[in-house]
User: Fold these one by one.
Assistant:
Number 1:
Amino acid sequence: MLLVSTYNEKRGRLMNTAVVLFVYNRPEHTKAVLNGLEKNKLQKLYVFCDGLKKQEDFDKVEKTKNIVRNIDWCEVEFFENNKNLGLAQSVINGVSSIFKKEYDSIIVLEDDCVPNGDFLEFMNNSLAYYKDIPEVMHVSGFGLPIKKYTQADTYLTPYPCSWGWGTWKEVWQGCNFEQFDNYTKLLNDKHLKKEFDYPGAAFSEFLQMQLDGKVNSWLIRWYYYIFQNKGKCVWSYKTFIKNRGFDGSGVHKNKIDRFNQKNDNENKLEIFKFEDNLSYNKNLIREFRRHFMGKKYTEKIKTSIYLLTGIIIGK
């Protein structure tokens, strides 16, 4: 049976890891995520449900809550917000509250991220493997449809993935999600802005939208914190997550899916090799950038060519 506590050989003790799910008004999506988690033989699950935002969401929110309340295959601790906080504040508050329970690390899913049967095994092992490497601040079980550039089964980028992710208590608790003056300074500094956009031209635009109040994202602020501390993020070549959020039902209303791998691969890897080389692979980053294009016309053209032909244009 897969346990949520994973032995960390470097520290010689069990690492206590919480598994957390955030839900709101998507009962069918939530059901799919829970079906995936059940395959992982989970022992305990924390679930956070945001409060009602619009009366028209009432029935869907109640259906979602009932699905969670009827889980009988693991222990569940269920938290319901009295008012609607929005996804960003729900995640920030929820993850912070879990770490007050003295967990060492956390694994987080949202209601559109469907895990396969190996997801928790991969995440627990990743969190244990990279625990004592300060540069690594975030891990994810999602895999983009990109070429395999290295011998290892994981790779590193500056940008964190929020689709089936994890981090450690000391990393999360060091993050200030309200660094608005620093966000402005970065956007006004051409050199810093270019560095920030190394993994994708969209990211400074995303940060500007946060400052302008056009989005409310915990992720772009989390990325800024990782960037500020010269941190690195682990991704997997093989995907352990299927993101079902490209149907227009979620917060971001993104209906174009250039992120999910086309072939769902449930085959378990007999030997999984984690990346020890903390340097970025430049060719990999070139392809990674195509999935996070900016709004400029030239960026869109480059990404369109890449998606149609596989040809990567740009340094």
Number 2:
Amino acid sequence: MTSESLEEITIEPLPEDYAQYDLSFKIIVIGDSGVGKSCLTSKAVKNMFIEFYQATIGFEFLTYNLKMNDTIVKLQIWDTCGQEVYRSLISNFYRNSSLAILIYAINNKESFNNTEYWLKDLKNEANNDIRIMLIGNKCDLENERVISKDEGENFKDENNIDCFMETSAKTGVNAKNCIHEAAKILYRDYLNNKIKGSISENNNNDSKLKNLGDKINVKGTRKCC
């Protein structure tokens, strides 16, 4: 394997039903309920925005396929619920995750303050080599902003988080870029022998995971963004 920077990695999105892959990574999406986790992942993966989204209970499972340089990479994205009553359940999904996307809403100070809890829980339960991205979502609500971009940047620097950006599930700002940047971080660190990925042995595994997600996932309607 050769060392590469993020800028040297090329990305080509592939169809959702693309069957074959060489390498896969597990990504977990965490943060308070109502910050737009499901809306953001749906916008990034399916280019869909549903204003009245159903609150996730348990988790949702999505896949996103990419050609990165000459490697076909499948991202297994686990979108978790944010309700406090289910947090003990969520911690079970930290294990074996390669990267966590920690999301707060720029118009919700409590969700930003709670990133400290999520980060602490993540570091206690996840693998030591897990990579972390911090996302300030709902940047389309500028007139309701209570958390500045500088506050997000400072939190990222103070806690040695790998990447920070602001996004909007509604307008699509940085939605796909968020997933692409996560993929680049993982692929770079895999090439540099800093993390491990799952080498494809059985391409039917995704359908089994999807079925598991369907059994566990229960929803109630609420406004997402």
Number 3:
Amino acid sequence: MKFPMFKVHIDKESALRNISSVIDTGFFNEGVQVKQFSESLSRKLGIKNIVLTNSCTSALTMALKLSGVGCGDEVISTSMTCLATNTPILNLGGKIVWADIDPKTGNICPKDVMRKITNKTKAVMCVNWAGLPCDLRELMSICQKNKIKLIQDAAHSFGSLYKDTDVSNHAHFTCYSFQAIKHITCGDGGALICLEDKDLERARSLKWFGLDRESTKDEDGEWKGQRWEADVVEAGYKFNMNNISASIGLSQVDHIDSIIKNHRENALQYEKLFSDSDLISPLLYPDNSLPSFWVYTVLLDKNIDRDKVIIDLNNAGIGAGLVHIPNHNYTCFRDSQCDLPGVDYFHSHQISLPCGWWINKKDIEIIVATLIDLCKQQIILK
């Protein structure tokens, strides 16, 4: 594929040097490198309450647990996302209540969220589609008024800003992904950001069976010795990040700003080139936000055969496609099935294009010209 949808950014020399350092110590578990990566991310995002995990799915599971979700409790969520957003709800015994999305944004609709709240609702799960922030102010206001938690799946949106600050400042819990094809990667990994200090303390215990391992380390992140006399008040999980994963993440810290800058510049180029098209519509996002554009998603005119366009683009060497499909039609979610016209429309007409650091303005001109030409050909033939 000449223009792939995803391409992993790795500073190979730095990554190998960091991994070699971990191997030399013989200590692969959670230690110095995890602490260093955590501190680097904390500075970069301008946040303090961060817990690194082995995946974003683990971070989401802990966020749900911290929100009080258990058997029979309801979580209002979006269907237009990765399975990893919603399977943790079922695995904790919760029930999913689908809220529709605004098809012009791909993001959950606050008005529909408000309509779906009951006395069983414990949390709202929102996803920043393609890195475009949701209406976080309205969602947070709804959750605070109803004394429920807002969980933000920010797997697509590392580095996205809302009201001039990182999106993680605008939800009770924010979960990031460092999986293989995200803005930055640890091979696999994630992070949980907690708005409140009390949730951070509990999360530190939950990530490792119920024991707070931070209390057994010195200021450098080294082990001070075992503390088996500590009581386990709440059974936790094995969700911690390890030093190998963290060392890969550390190799990318110095490149984060340039990676996201390239994504944003490419998105602006797309917006400019699509501005005169009446067959292709870029997604909308809040005026007071600055997305990180993991991919660039557009909606095709209703008269365009989207699936044929994807095949033709792929045949032309352009890695366009669907990064996720709606969850609500899967059998495992059959107990929550309902009509979601916004999701159905968005899914039928959306297509995502490569937007990362590996393509440039010239490449985007080719991608846009090819897509517009394919759409026009279909209209002419009809």
